[in-house]
Amino acid sequence: MTSGTNQSEARFDFVVVANRLPVDRYTTAEGEPGWRTSPGGLVTALTPVMERLGGAWVGWAGADTEGISPFTHNGTRIVPVPLSAEEVESYYEGFSNDTLWPLYHDVIAPPTYHREWWDSYVKVNRRFAEAAAETANERATVWVHDYQLQLVPGMLRELRPDLTIGFFNHIPFPAYGLFSQLPWRTQIIEGLLGADVIGFQRVADASNFTRAVRRLVGYETKGTSVYVPLESDSAPGQTGGYRRGGPTRHVLAKHFPISIDSASFEALARTPEVQARAAEIRSDLGGSGKILFGVDRLDYTKGIRHRLKAYGELLADGRIDPADVTLIQVASPSRERVETYRQLRDEIELTVGRINGDFGQIGHSAVHYLHHGYPREEMVALYLASDVMLVTALRDGMNLVAKEYVATRFDQDGVLVLSEFAGASDDLTQALLINPHDIEGLKDTIMTAINMPQPERAKRMKSMRKKVRENDVERWSTAFLAELERSAAARLDEARGHRVGAEQQ
Ligand SMILES: O=P(O)(O)OC[C@H]1O[C@H](O[C@H]2O[C@H](CO)[C@@H](O)[C@H](O)[C@H]2O)[C@H](O)[C@@H](O)[C@@H]1O
Ligand SMILES: O=c1ccn([C@@H]2O[C@H](COP(=O)(O)OP(=O)(O)O)[C@@H](O)[C@H]2O)c(=O)[nH]1
């Protein structure tokens, strides 16, 4: 895949561009710099794709990483894009995670609009686009990811019209009524339309996007097709005016639900070490009771408060006995300098403290709350050890945790309680689907899950496992990249057609 003579000049036929690199630099307890797997589902999903396809991954290596040179990690060329401390605050914590993130997740928290954050977003997106342009071979495929980089496709097309450009949005795309709040909504739409294929998690996300295209720039759309005019009637700097019936560029905007490398999760679950660890977790918790499990980045989109409320009320109502049931809640640290996340942590920890104060006993907590990020082996052991998995997101692009739980349960046991507001619910229809805002409904469903007879557990799990095995991450990337390839071929045909036409004139 590599061409070029020297490592720093290496160029690639396949380039992934994402805010996060697969590895994140951090400072060890001894004060030394170390590397660890980056948090979140984007990295979980993309890592096996890159390991299979090879190529380069352009992204940010985490705090204090200015001046790090490209290096190779598990066969992938890692190309770090530096961010200053000020840019981390304005582009990452600010515009990405305090403007776009809440806006795209149904304004569960209020979005903040700051012009300085937008300026920083534009500047950093340009840096990513330039880094991608310098890393990509002639006519390479570049796959840009997620809301942090929505301007990159447009910028990259201007810098390198020879490239085939894909974009995948890992989080929901909001309904027009919400999206239209964004002061820079038109620039975002135009940035995204620089791509040849724009992927979304769910059908509704793709149709929200095409509606925004019609409303904001007035381009023609038909189903999953958007026709971007090649000739504009607008004065320079203006948008919206174009010659109807003129030549267009075709952009596909379609849902491609992401997934996991399900075989590798099952293989890990089958190892004696992980099984021994699962048995140890169960025995540490008393051995015989039911274990409920939740694991999420500590994020307000995940519905951790709703889950704790339902669980606390079930204890208070006497419907569950803390001696028989335990909740393990892993809340892994996330975006800790954003105020909404700090507040959420305080609220969650207050609630956990109250539940444990009211219902805990010496030697037995009602909630085992863990504010850590765990490696995959421990995650899989926890999945295996638990009787009920609670995914109560208020809004979630996909939620890979739900799919990992299912992939892990080769014993055909365990019950998945799953929010209908997570993308994963489209495929996992045999989960117990819930509306997390309906606390009474959630309580009843938790009881159903705890008391579900083994044959029904096995039947539901078997059907979900089939889905997760069939629709794995390889299928996702293959489907997306096949569309990109089709688009590249069509562009080539069109260019040939133009050449022949010009020669005949
Ligand atoms: O990079 P961070 O700010 O630490 O956040 C971690 C990642 O969170 C989000 O993940 C999303 O992608 C998953 C895979 O498609 C999906 O299952 C989940 O629903 C999404 O929330 C975010 O979109 C990523 O960019 C972050 O890296
Ligand atoms: O302590 C933790 C918590 C989460 N994860 C992983 O982080 C990803 C979370 O992805 P998901 O799509 O559920 O949500 P996101 O955090 O991306 O919003 C999954 O692969 C989890 O296994 C992990 O490895 N350790």
Automatic annotation (TrEMBL):
Keyword terms of this UniProt record: Glycosyltransferase, Transferase
SUPFAM superfamilies named in the record: UDP-Glycosyltransferase/glycogen phosphorylase
Pathway in which the depicted protein is active: Glycan biosynthesis; trehalose biosynthesis
GO BP, one annotated term: trehalose biosynthetic process
Enzyme Commission identifier(s): 2.4.1.15
Reaction catalyzed: D-glucose 6-phosphate + UDP-alpha-D-glucose = alpha,alpha-trehalose 6-phosphate + UDP + H(+)
One Pfam family per UniProt: Glyco_transf_20
Gene Ontology MF terms: alpha,alpha-trehalose-phosphate synthase (UDP-forming) activity
NCBIfam families found in the cross-reference section: trehalose_OtsA
Protein family: Belongs to the glycosyltransferase 20 family.
Subunit structure as annotated in this protein's UniProt entry: Homotetramer.
Function: Probably involved in the osmoprotection via the biosynthesis of trehalose. Catalyzes the transfer of glucose from UDP-alpha-D-glucose (UDP-Glc) to D-glucose 6-phosphate (Glc-6-P) to form trehalose-6-phosphate. Acts with retention of the anomeric configuration of the UDP-sugar donor.
The protein's name: Trehalose-6-phosphate synthase
Species annotation: Mycetocola lacteus
